[in-house]
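As a warm-up, study this chain.
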Amino acid sequence: MDYSHIITIEAAKRGGKPCIRGLRITVYDVLEYLASGMSEEEILRDFPDLTKDDIRACLAFAADRERRFVTVPLS
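Now compare it with the structure written out below.
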């Protein structure tokens, strides 16, 4: 998924953390809600400015960051 038009980073907003469409909702916030057990529907109900595509963009962004981590070979 191309999340480049959804995930924004602005130095003056939320300390430069990746946010959703310039809102003050960070990728971390959404991932934390999902990790705590909230369903997609619950998140969308609690944050009506968000869309399903926003949630998917957060997951794609996190997956890309994970892919970029350096792996240490096992000895």
